[in-house]
Design goal:
By secondary structure, the protein is α+β, with helices and mostly antiparallel strands. Helix content is 25%, strand content 30%. It is built from 15 helices and 44 strands. It is globular and about 95 Å long.
C-alpha cells in the first residue's frame, strides 16, 4: 500500500472539527456478523487515545468505531490523526457519512505501525463510496468512522487513533488518482505517443474484448484478447505477437482478424491474422489436467514463393485485462522488474504489492529464439523482452512455436495436450447434445460454450461468475449456475459447491451473500437464504442423495428460521398503514439487486427467492419426516400471502399496472421479475393482468431497442432470463427475436460469450464485468434448455418444445438428448410443419404430471396419434402419461398420403 502521508507542519487555521480522543465514550464500536469489535481508552501519543479492537475469526467482514457529529466542511480541508496498532494486513478505512451517503479513504492491506504515526488525508483523496445522493461532493457530515475490513490476513488486532482533526486549507480541493491508475496513465501516455499497434487498444481509448482459456476446475485461467495478446495467469504480464514480412511490420492494428473455437464450441480459442503473404494462427490452450497454459503460434506462407517471415513475441508489463476493469483485480499495468532468458526458459520477475516478495513466472519456448532482446520502457518496473523467430517457409508451408506457461508440472507436447484437452471437452459437452437446423447451430454451439465457461470460471468447488473482477463465490450466482450444471449432467460440481459453501453459513442461520479467501461476507442480501435452500433441494431432486440431504438439513432449518426473523420484523403495525402497506411482511431492504446498491430497497427479487426457499424447505422437511414441517409450511403460506398482498398494495400505492422490482419504489424491472416465474414458480398465483403487463411492456421496449428506434447505451445479458419467461408465458413466436438480439451482442461472436455489460458502441471504454461471465452464461443455458423442456412445478409435468418456433422444426427439426431432469433423463425430438408433425420422447424420464406438448402453430391442430392411438387435444395441448417407455407422436398426415 502507499505509505501514509506524514505530517509536516501544523496549519495555523483553527480546526473545523477536533477530538483529542481522550475518552472512548463518544466512539461506539461494532463488528459485522461473527466479527468482534470494541472500543477502549488507551494511552495515547500525548494523553489518551481510542483503540478499536477486532477479531475476524474465520469470516470476512469488518469492525468499526463511529462518532456521530455534525460537521460543516470547507471547500478545501484535510483530515489529520495519529495511528498505531498491531495485527496483520487488512483494509483500513476512514469514512465521513451524511445520511445514507458515504465518502471514504481506503488503505488496502494496511499493516498498523508499531509506533505512533501521523496521517494526513487531503480532501481530494476522500472519494464518494456509495449512497443515493446525486451530489457527490462532500460538503457536510453527520459522523466519522474508522474501519478495519478483512483483507489479506484477517485475524485479530488493534488500531488506536489519537489527535483527530479536520482543518481548513486555502484554495480548492484537487482529486488524486489512485496509484494503480497512475501506472495505467503512464502507459496510456506512451501509447498515445507511439504508432497504432505498438500498445494494446485499451491504452489508446478503445474497448477491447477477450476470452478465457481455462481448465475444468479452474487450475489454469489464462486470457487471450481479440487481438491475440495472451495473459497466462490472473494479474500477469502479457505476450503480444508481431509479424515482420518483407520489411513491413504487422500487428493487430493493420491485419484482418478472425476468431474461432475448436469444433466451433470448445473453450480452446484462436485468433487468425490474414495478410497478403501469410497467416498467423494464435491458439490458447488450458491443459485439461490443469498443469499449464500453452500458446501455439502457427505461421503459414500464403505466397507462391519461398520466403523468410519473422515472428516476434513481446513480453510486456501489462495484462490483457484492461485498465477499466477493477474490483477483485485492477486491470492494466502489471510491473516487470527483471527478465532473464536461458535457452528456451524465460523467467519473468513481477513485483507484488503490500510488501509481498516478487513473483517469478516461468515461460518455456518449444525452441530457442533466433535472437532476443531485453529492454525497458520508461518508468519503474517496465521491463520488456522480444523473442524473435525467423521462419524459412516454402509456398503453403507452415511452422510453429509453442510457449508453455507452466504451473508446478510441465505438460506433454502441444499435440498430446491439445488432443487430451479436446477429448475432455468433447466428453463433457457431449453429455447433453442438441441437433438443430443449420440456421440455429450458433445457438446450440453457444449453449455448449456457455456451459464450459461455468466449469472454467470456477476455482475448485467455488462457482464464480468470473476469474478477474468477480473472483469470489456468490450463493446467488452459484445456485443458478448449479441449476444449469444439474440439467447438463454435472451434479458432481453442484454438489461440491454446496458442500463447500455450507460451513461458511453464520451461526445465526444467515447465509452469506458471498464467500472468498477472506471468509463469509456479512453484507445483507436477503435473497441468499432462499437460494441456498433451493440449491440443497435441487441437488436432492436431481440426485436422490438422501444422506447428503440429511447432512444439509441443519443448515436448511437454520436458514429458514433466520428468514422468519427477517420477514417477521416487517410484519408491524407501522407497515399496515396505507403509505407502507406494500412493505408488510416482506424481507427487509437489501442490496442484493445491484440497482439498489445506493440505498437498500424492498426488492421483490428477495421475496420470490425467500418464498422459493420456504417451499423447498417444507418439501425437504416432509421428505425427511422432520417435526418442523408443519411450522415451515405455515411460514411458507404466510409469506406467500404477504408477498402477493404487497404486490397489489404497490400497484395501488404507485399507480402502476406491472409487477415492480421493489415495492418501495414501484420501479419497472422485468429482468428481476423473471425470477417469479423461474425458479419462483409463482406464475399461476400472480395477478394475471399485472404479469402480462410486465412482460408486454418489456417486449415493447425490447422491440424499440432492438430496432434502433429507442436510443440505448448498454444492457446486461442477464436479460437472457426472459427467454425462459417467454417460454412459460407461451410467447413462442417472440423468442427468436430475443435470441437474435442477444446472439448479436456476443463479442467476438465466434467466441460464444458475453460480458456482464454489453455496450451499444463497441469501442466505447467501460467496465464490463468479467468476460466471459459465468452467471450470464448460466442464464443463457437455462433459457435455451427451457425452450426444449421445462418443469411445471404446480403439477410436476415436463412441458416440451414450448420455445421452439417453426424455424426450429423445419427440415430435420430439433432434438435434445441426455437432458437431466428431477424425474430422470430426457430425450426429445420434434420436426415438421402445420400439416404434419412428428415428435418422440425417450430417455426414461417419468414426471408424475406427465408430458405436455403444445401445438406450435397458430392453426387448429390436426388429429394426433400417440403410439398409434388417437389422443385428443385439450386447450391446444397433448397431455401424455409418462411410462418410462419411448413415446411417438404423429400429428396430421404427410402430404400425398391417403386419409
Amino acid at each position: 500500500m502507499p505509505a501514509l502521508a506524514l505530517l509536516a507542519a501544523a496549519p495555523a487555521s483553527a480546526p473545523i472539527f477536533a477530538d483529542a480522543m481522550e475518552a472512548a465514550g463518544p466512539w461506539v464500536a461494532k463488528g459485522s456478523d461473527s466479527v468482534a469489535g470494541s472500543s477502549a481508552s488507551v494511552p495515547g501519543s500525548d494523553g489518551r487515545a481510542v483503540e478499536l479492537a477486532y477479531d475476524f475469526g474465520r469470516v470476512s467482514g469488518y469492525a468499526y468505531m463511529r462518532r456521530p457529529v455534525a460537521i460543516a466542511l470547507e471547500d478545501n480541508f484535510e483530515v489529520r490523526f495519529r495511528v498505531k496498532g498491531t495485527g496483520g494486513r487488512n483494509d483500513f478505512q476512514m469514512k465521513l457519512t451524511n445520511g445514507d451517503n458515504v465518502w471514504w479513504k481506503v488503505w488496502r492491506n494496511f499493516r498498523p505501525p508499531e509506533q505512533w504515526q501521523e496521517v494526513v488525508v487531503p480532501a481530494g483523496e476522500i472519494g464518494f463510496a456509495w449512497g443515493p445522493t446525486e451530489d457527490k461532493i462532500l460538503r457536510r457530515a453527520d459522523g466519522i468512522e474508522f474501519v478495519v475490513a478483512r483483507n489479506r490476513d484477517g485475524g485479530a488486532g488493534r488500531i488506536a487513533i489519537d489527535e483527530l482533526r479536520i482543518v481548513p486549507l486555502p484554495g480548492v480541493r484537487t482529486s488524486v488518482r489512485p496509484p494503480e491508475n497512475s501506472a495505467n496513465d503512464r502507459i496510456a501516455a506512451l501509447a498515445k505517443a507511439s504508432p497504432r499497434g505498438a500498445f494494446p487498444r485499451a491504452f489508446i481509448g478503445e474497448q477491447p474484448y477477450w476470452t478465457l482459456a481455462g481448465s475444468d476446475g479452474g487450475k489454469v485461467a489464462a486470457l487471450i484478447s481479440e487481438d491475440a495478446a495472451i495473459e497466462p495467469a490472473k494479474g500477469s504480464y502479457s505476450i503480444e505477437p508481431v509479424v515482420i514480412d518483407g520489411g513491413r511490420r504487422f500487428s493487430w492494428a493493420n491485419v484482418p482478424q478472425s476468431h474461432s473455437l475448436a469444433d466451433g464450441k470448445l473453450p480452446i480459442p484462436s485468433v487468425s491474422w490474414s495478410a497478403p503473404g501469410f497467416r498467423l494462427d494464435t491458439t490458447l490452450l488450458a491443459d485439461s489436467a490443469g498443469r499449464s497454459a500453452l500458446a501455439r503460434y502457427a505461421l503459414t506462407n500464403l505466397s507462391g514463393g519461398r520466403r523468410t517471415i519473422e515472428l516476434r513475441l513481446g513480453i510486456r508489463p501489462w495484462q490483457v485485462n484492461p485498465p477499466a476493469q477493477f474490483l477483485a483485480q485492477q486491470g492494466g499495468a502489471s510491473p516487470i522488474s527483471r527478465i532473464v532468458r536461458n535457452g528456451t526458459r524465460i523467467e519473468i520477475t513481477q513485483p507484488q504489492t503490500e510488501g509481498d516478495p516478487p513473483l517469478k513466472r516461468v515461460l518455456i519456448a518449444s525452441r530457442p529464439p533466433d535472437s532476443a532482446t531485453v529492454a525497458s520502457l520508461p518508468g519503474k518496473d517496465m521491463a520488456t523482452a522480444d523473442l524473435v523467430y525467423r521462419f524459412e517457409l516454402g509456398p503453403g508451408a507452415s511452422d510453429q512455436i509453442v510457449l508453455t506457461m507452466p504451473g508446478k508440472v510441465v505438460p506433454p507436447s502441444w499435440d498430446r495436450a491439445f488432443a487430451a484437452t479436446r477429448s475432455h471437452w468433447r466428453d463433457v459437452l457431449g453429455r447433453v447434445t442438441l441437433r438443430v437446423p443449420p440456421s440455429k447451430q450458433a445457438v446450440a454451439d453457444t449453449l455448449a460454450t456457455a456451459f464450459s465457461h461455468i466449469l472454467t470460471s470456477r476455482d475448485g468447488p467455488m462457482l464464480k461468475p468470473g476469474t478477474r473482477s468477480y473472483d469470489r463465490a456468490w450463493i446467488r450466482d452459484g445456485a443458478m449456475m448449479s441449476e444449469a450444471l444439474l440439467r447438463m449432467g454435472r451434479a458432481d460440481v453442484a454438489r461440491a459447491f454446496a458442500d463447500w459453501y455450507r460451513p461458511n453459513l453464520f451461526s445465526s442461520g444467515k447465509v452469506p451473500c458471498c464467500v472468498d479467501f477472506r471468509g463469509a461476507d456479512p453484507v445483507p442480501e436477503n435473497d441468499s437464504h432462499g437460494e441456498y435452500i433451493f440449491l440443497v433441494n435441487q441437488l436432492y431432486r436431481f440426485t436422490g442423495d438422501r444422506p447428503a440431504l440429511e447432512r444439509d438439513w441443519p443448515s436448511v432449518l437454520a436458514a429458514t428460521r433466520y428468514m422468519d426473523q427477517l420477514r417477521l420484523s416487517e410484519r408491524t403495525p407501522a407497515n399496515l398503514t396505507p403509505e407502507r402497506r406494500m412493505l408488510y411482511g416482506l424481507m427487509p431492504p437489501s442490496i442484493s439487486h445491484e440497482g439498489y446498491s445506493a440505498k437498500p430497497q424492498y426488492s421483490l427479487w428477495d421475496d420470490f427467492w425467500a418464498l422459493r426457499g420456504y417451499r423447498d424447505a417444507a418439501e425437504i422437511a416432509r421428505v425427511l419426516g422432520k417435526p418442523e414441517a408443519a411450522d415451515i409450511a405455515a411460514s411458507r403460506d404466510q409469506i406467500a400471502a404477504d408477498l402477493h398482498a404487497a404486490i397489489l398494495a404497490a400497484r395501488d400505492r404507485w399507480k402502476i399496472d406491472f409487477i415492480p422490482g421493489a415495492t418501495s419504489l414501484g420501479d419497472f424491472d422485468a429482468t428481476s421479475t423473471t425470477i417469479a416465474l423461474d425458479p419462483g414458480n409463482e406464475q399461476s398465483r400472480l395477478d394475471p393482468k399485472m404479469l402480462e403487463a410486465t412482460f408486454e411492456r418489456y417486449w415493447r421496449e425490447f422491440q424499440t431497442r432492438a430496432s434502433g428506434a429507442r436510443p440505448w447505451k448498454d444492457y446486461t445479458p442477464y436479460e437472457t432470463r426472459t427467454i425462459g419467461s417467454f417460454v412459460r408465458l407461451g410467447w413462442r413466436d417472440r423468442i427468436d427475436p430475443l435470441l437474435d438480439f442477444f446472439m448479436a451482442s456476443r463479442r467476438p461472436a465466434e467466441w460464444n460469450q458475453w460480458a456482464e455489460i454489453v455496450g451499444r458502441e463497441t469501442r466505447e471504454i467501460r467496465f464490463i464485468g468479467d468476460m466471459p461471465h459465468a452467471w450470464v452464461a448460466s442464464d443463457f443455458v437455462r433459457g435455451v434448455l427451457d425452450m426444449f423442456a421445462w418443469e411445471r412445478r404446480d403439477d410436476s409435468a415436463l412441458v416440451l418444445g414450448g420455445g421452439l418456433s417453426a424455424d426450429w422444426l423445419a427440415g430435420k427439426g430439433s432434438r435434445i438428448a441426455g437432458l437431466a431432469t428431477p424425474y430422470g433423463q430426457l430425450d426429445f425430438s420434434i420436426r415438421g410443419d402445420h400439416r404434419h408433425l412428428t415428435a418422440t420422447i425417450g430417455g426414461g424420464a417419468r414426471p408424475p404430471g406427465g408430458f405436455v406438448l403444445h401445438w406450435p402453430y397458430r392453426t387448429r391442430p390436426p388429429r394426433a396419434r400417440v403410439d398409434g392411438r388417437v389422443v385428443p387435444w385439450r386447450n391446444g395441448a397433448l397431455n401424455l402419461a409418462a411410462t418410462g417407455n419411448p413415446i411417438r407422436i404423429e400429428v396430421g398426415q404427410r402430404t400425398g398420403t391417403p386419409k
